[in-house]
Write a sequence for this structure.
């Protein structure tokens, strides 16, 4: 289930080498219950399921995701099963009325611009009922700047987690979408910006689909957390890719900045 406009964006990136909304974990490792507070989110448009993303519980009712996921949505719901596909049709996915937890409110960063989504790619969802599956936390402010000055250290490992496409190939019938929560291991490349994205906004990571126990990100469901190493500290949310075949590098929207953390914390009380 690709977000509306995704096929156009993929065509655009082929012609202009621009960044496009992304991502799911490709060729990573099934997460099982490693990150039970990461959920598969379905967003409605006009009252019907329209696209999916991933998100992270920050409190019993507050979830963090990407702004291009929340923008334009009329409602939605989330599942926290490690394998949402295995629960169909009993869980109701992707519709309301099953075991998914409905959204009570949806917020997009006030400076979000759909024509330059990567500049403020941040969204918050409030759940209609509390959930206690553990929680993600916000990484220390300035973490990525600090790590970017270091080289060859284990601390530069990051763990993106999400649901969705496992591969994207020229034949659309061969696309693999398991609806399973996966995790990958990526390495920090830099925070100086990429493809016209200014410094201080994005962070770029390696993207290694096909490499066992490594993995990367691809099209399908953005907004998933990018954890620092093996911690539950979220340094960024998965935001964009720079290649339509899910090779090369993947990018996240940084949340280790004072203004973004102030906005997120305004929902946490």
């Amino acid at each position: 289930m690709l977000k509306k406009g995704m096929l156009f964006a993929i065509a655009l990136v082929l012609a202009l080498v621009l960044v496009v909304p992304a991502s799911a974990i490709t060729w990573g490792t099934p997460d099982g219950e490693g990150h039970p507070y990461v959920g598969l989110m379905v967003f409605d448009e006009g009252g019907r399921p329209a696209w999916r993303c991933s998100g992270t519980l920050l409190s019993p009712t507050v979830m963090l995701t990407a702004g291009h996921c929340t923008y334009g949505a009329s409602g939605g719901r989330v599942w926290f099963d490690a394998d949402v596909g295995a629960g169909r049709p009993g869980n109701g996915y992707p519709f309301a009325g099953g075991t998914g937890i409905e959204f009570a409110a949806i917020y997009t960063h006030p400076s979000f611009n759909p024509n330059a989504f990567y500049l403020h790619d941040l969204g918050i969802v409030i759940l209609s009922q509390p959930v206690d599956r553990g929680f993600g936390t916000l990484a220390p402010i300035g973490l990525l700047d600090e790590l970017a000055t270091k080289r060859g250290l284990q601390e530069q490992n990051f763990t993106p987690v999400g649901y969705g496409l496992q591969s994207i190939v020229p034949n659309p019938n061969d696309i693999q979408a398991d609806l399973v929560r996966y995790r990958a291991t990526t390495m920090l490349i830099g925070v100086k910006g990429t493809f016209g994205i200014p410094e201080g906004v994005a962070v770029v990571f390696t993207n290694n689909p096909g490499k066992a126990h490594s993995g990367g990100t691809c099209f399908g469901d953005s907004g998933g957390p990018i954890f620092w190493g093996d911690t539950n500290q979220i340094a960024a949310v998965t935001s964009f890719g720079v290649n339509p075949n899910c090779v090369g590098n993947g990018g996240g929207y940084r949340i280790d900045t004072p203004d973004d953390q102030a906005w997120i914390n305004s929902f946490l009380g």
Q: What stands out?
A: The CA atoms of residues 111 and 170 lie 35 Å apart. Residues 6-16 form the longest helix (11 residues).
